[in-house]
Amino acid sequence: MKDTKRLLSYVRRAVDDYEMIKEGDKIAVGVSAGKDSLTLLCAMAFLRRFYPKKFELIAITIDMGFEGMDFSGIEKLCHELDVEYRVVPSQIAKIIFDVRKEKSPCSLCAKMRRGALHNAAKELGCTSVALGHHFDDAVETFMLNLFFEGRLGCFSPVSYLSRIGLNLIRPMVYMPEKDVRYFASQNELPVVKSSCPADGNTEREEMKKLLHDLDKKHKGLRYRIFGAMQRGEIDGFKSADRLAGIEAYSDDEDQMS
Question: Has residue 60 been placed in a domain?
Answer without folding.
Answer: yes
